[in-house]
Amino acid sequence: MTEIAAGVTPHRRAPRSWAVWRGRIPLYIGIGLIAAVVVAALLAPVIAPFDPTAQDILNTLASPGTGKHLLGTDQFGRDVLSRLLYAGRIDLLIAFGATAVTLTFGTLFGLVSGYYGGRIDAVMMRFVDLVFAFPFIVLVLAIIAILGPGLRNMFIAIWIVSWVPYARLVRGEVLVAKRQEYVMAARALDYGSPRIMVGHILPNVITPPLVYSMLDAVSNVGIGAALGFLGLGVQDPTAEWGKMIADSQSFMATNWWLPTAPGVAIAILGLGLSLVGDNLADRLRAKG
Predict the structure, then answer these.
(1) What CATH architecture is 2-287?
(2) Residue 5, by phi and psi: left (phi above 0), alpha (psi -120 to 50) or beta?
(3) pLDDT above 90 for 228
(4) Residues 121, 126, 129, CA angle at the centre, nearest 5°?
């Protein structure tokens, strides 16, 4: 009687709670996939059965399940599972390390440009337009061609190019935020510009670039794999998923496990990052 009088019953609450939980399933799946890749990469020295660079010319191109080689061996007799686990460290570094730098620099650049406006904004945004005028992958390839192949130069190329979308995104948010009442109140209290930008504006404009960073991390993983495939990224004997695919392209028809293992790893990490990014974007739109 109490439940009926109150107008709320457990049967009415259950569907709503289930709908909320069901809407979060993609987010949980994405977090789980990313966590699985991170744990596997961090525990690589513990769970990898062999040295990822050790060659065994007497046991080359062994099929999965041969001896202790759960995923077989490559053309040099190196254990595919061990190389896959250690390669995950490189690709996670690309996904999160490269993205963190571009997120930080691009956010600060857009914050300063949008807050001060005027000539400062005009000059800074013309520089943004200059970088943005070149196709992303073409500019990355040009920078690596100048600096030379390698992991460090690949990071430098991504850093130089990938910060531009963050700057544009944050600048647009700041142009709106700086006209809000809380910013005017801070100015009336004679707060300094750095305090207003970092303490008041930044917390209110940081969500969109954070959401975009998850999707940008997927792009960076793809760029790292593509450069590795072209031989412009990580160099031998270091393992990297794109490089593993490139090294196995001559054996795709006969030894399917060589390109399949790193390809699946890239797909898992990319799917996890995409699910988290899309779910965060949906939540942001719902709040808006």
Answers:
(1) Orthogonal Bundle (1.10)
(2) alpha
(3) no
(4) 125
Question: Shortest CA distance to 48 belongs to which of 84, 89, 76, 93?
Answer: 84
Tokens describing residue 79: 């254990």
Mean pLDDT of the chain: 88
- The residue type of 288 is G
Q: Which tokens belong to 1? A: 């009687």
Percent of residues in the chain assigned helix, strand, coil, to nearest 5: 75, 0, 25
Map tokens 């979308």 to a residue: 165
The mean pLDDT value for 135-159 works out to: 91
Which residues are registered as beta bridge partners of 262? none
Which residues, at least 6 apart from 96, have a Cβ–Cβ distance to it below 8 Å?
A: 217
Cα separation, 50 vs 143, whole angstroms:
36
The verdict on whether omega for the bond into residue 149 sits within 30 degrees of 0, i.e. cis, is no
All structural domains of the chain with their residue ranges:
2-287
Percent of the chain at pLDDT exceeding 70: 91
Tell me the three state secondary structure of residue 66.
Answer: strand
Judged by DSSP in three states, 172 sits in helix
pLDDT tier for residue 231 given thresholds of 50, 70 and 90: confident
With CA atoms as reference, report the closest residue to 94 among 234, 212, 232.
Answer: 234
Radius of gyration of the chain, Cα coordinates, nearest whole angstrom: 24
Place of tokens 């999160």: 96
pLDDT of residue 3: 47
